[in-house]
Write a structure and sequence with these properties.
By secondary structure, the chain is an alpha/beta fold. About 30% of the residues lie in helices and about 15% in strands. The chain has a nine-stranded mixed β-sheet with strand order 1-2-3-5-4-6-7-8-9, sandwiched between helices. A hairpin with a 3-residue loop joins strand 1 and strand 2.
Amino acid sequence: MISRYRWIMIVLLLTQLVSPLSAQQVPAPTIDLLASDGDLPAVKSPQDWEHRKTHILEQMQKVMGPLPSPETPVPLSMEILERRQFPSANRWKIRYHTDDPQAWVHAWLFLPRKVKQPCPAVLCLHQTTRIGKDEPAGLGGKENLHYASELAERGFVTLAPDYPSFGDSLDYDFEQDDYLSGTMKAIYDNVRAVDLLQSLPMVDADQIGCIGHSLGGHNTMFTAAFEPRIKAMVSCCGFTRFHKYYGGQLKGWTSSRYMPRIASVYNNDPDQVPFDFPEIVGTFAPRPFLAVAPEHDSNFEVSGVRDSISAAKPVYELLGASENLRAIYPDCAHDFPPEARETAYQFLEKSLGKN
């Protein structure tokens, strides 16, 4: 007769054999961005990659909704609401229109003093925080996330706007706008923010970068995929492979603030979502991109960042820009510590031609 102990062991073994893998154990499929894919031929030249990139952006818009492309954009009509002068920069609170002449986006604009003009500019996108733009501007929140004010001290023009539903737009109603996702609304707001930066006489219109942490990190990436005028990007704690985001549980991406179609159309299934972050990183090539991915980030699992950088590397090599793709992996949790910020700031200075 089989002992009770052995029966228990047999049952446990059979359970492990027949039960589905847990979400944490499901492996992410490998991605070869240059390989043939369905009706798409293999990528063998920069021209081939341009066609593939167009396809990636089309797939993103299936989830996010179409990027607005009005023949005549709404006038920005920038207004200055507040001015403060500091030793290294002037800080203005401003507002401007993006897609509606009756609605405003509020932002902090830093104009460095005693620097050679025109100078590079950086769009600084905030994390998920009620105070929105105030945190990168140094007016509250975490000290490690005051990158708009810190970059201004280093001689950049910086612009820190509110993401819809934060800061001065807490009452924003995603259900009443014309977008299929809050993500696309934010992307278009950022496109217009680039318009605003280029309109400023002290900005070098050809040297505009973007930086962000967490929400601001993937907001940076989504915007830069569609906006080629952004010439260099830094994303801190902003992404991982969808399969490795909480073991493939995508609910966190599906509120109206982000991409609800991930749930309503693609069933929260990473296998069904028609794009992933390796493709997004690939769309940046040959532009400089730095990923800051802490080893202990519980929001965005670090191996999914490593996967994405590895997958995008052949695209950068194809375009002769392998040195423009970088990643660092700080020994910390979901944060942007001083050493990582210093690396990021030097990366932007080099990438945007600032001595």
